[in-house]
TrEMBL record:
Family to which this protein belongs: Belongs to the ABC transporter superfamily.
Subcellular location(s) of the protein: Cell membrane
GO MF, one example: ATP binding
Taxonomic source organism: Gordonia jacobaea
Keyword Cell inner membrane attached: no
Protein name as it appears in the record: Arginine ABC transporter ATP-binding protein
Keyword field contains Nucleotide-binding: yes
Main location: membrane
Domain (ABC transporter) ranges: 2-246
Length: 250
């Protein structure tokens, strides 16, 4: 479902991603950990083409991200085609960015009705189902400001799912939450993983990584330092940098 082949990304003269390669099978969960500034967010942003890669290739479900190949040459996609490609990839950020002046259900039906041109009744019935899945059926008519951070994040997950993505990207989805609200969000993500969704998750929730992830990647300085079965990486890290990082988390 995801193939990254030596992905490089620079901002000006600063090289942030120095050849990231990884593969995620359909239905797998890959967790990415690593120190602040190691390029985790940049990598996720490249996957849905919010950032353009400078070298290397990214494929999602067999589609080359951001470029078209013609006669052995690569051509940048039009913004319209890139937007179309992005529709199949859901993203959940640390800050949920819900529309403050719309109700929960209006937030969830916004993209399906405006972008996918679904009719409102159909979008609403799917939104109701999704809100139930994230445990917020009774909050459909509330406004974001009336919800806790954890509830808002669960709405953000429902909103991403409303577009029926093939792949979900999570960038530290629980980092901004009060500790007692983290569990409900992780619970929703756990169920989503169990339902077969392919997920790339940047997180420092090691319990989640250990129990839910199929692969754990440790990034530092724009490279993948270590990757493997999360239980093995966490119990028996091979690299000094991984050991140091993990010891600071505990
Ligand atoms: P992480 O998510 O692992 O904390 P980021 O991917 O956010 O790391 O950032 C990696 C590096 O790239 C940082 O040094 C950051 O300052 C830099 N960076 C990220 N986005 C930009 C940008 N738009 N312009 C310039 N530098 C950036
Ligand atoms: Mg980040």
């Amino acid at each position: 479902m995801v193939l990254a082949d030596r992905v490089c990304k620079s901002f000006g003269t600063t090289q942030v991603l120095k050849g990231i390669s990884l593969e995620v099978e359909r239905g797998e969960v890959l967790c990415i950990i690593g120190p602040s500034g190691s390029g985790k967010s940049t990598f996720l942003r490249c996957v849905n083409h919010l950032e353009e890669v400078n070298a290397g290739r990214l494929y999602v479900d067999g589609d080359l991200i951001g470029y078209r190949e013609r006669g052995g040459k690569l051509y940048e996609m039009s913004p319209k085609d890139a937007a179309k490609q992005r529709r199949d990839i859901g993203m959940v950020f640390q800050h949920f960015n819900l529309f403050p002046h719309r109700t929960v259900i209006e937030n969830v039906i916004e993209a399906p009705t405006q972008v996918k041109r679904k009719n409102k009744a159909e979008a609403t019935s799917r939104a109701e189902y999704l809100l139930e899945r994230v445990g917020l059926a009774d909050k459909a008519q509330s406004y974001p400001s009336q919800l806790s951070g954890g509830q808002q994040q669960r709405v953000a997950i429902a909103r991403a799912l409303a577009m029926e993505p093939k792949l979900m990207l999570f960038d530290e989805p629980t980092s901004a939450l009060d500790p007692e609200l983290v569990g409900d969000v992780l619970g929703v993500m756990r169920e989503l993983a169990a339902s077969g969704m392919t997920m790339l998750v940047v997180t420092h929730e090691m319990g989640f990584a250990r129990e839910v992830a199929d692969q754990l990647v440790f990034m530092d300085g724009g490279v993948v330092v270590e990757q493997g079965d999360p239980r093995e990486v966490l119990a028996n890290p091979q690299h000094e940098r991984t050991k140091t990082f993990l010891s600071k988390l505990l």
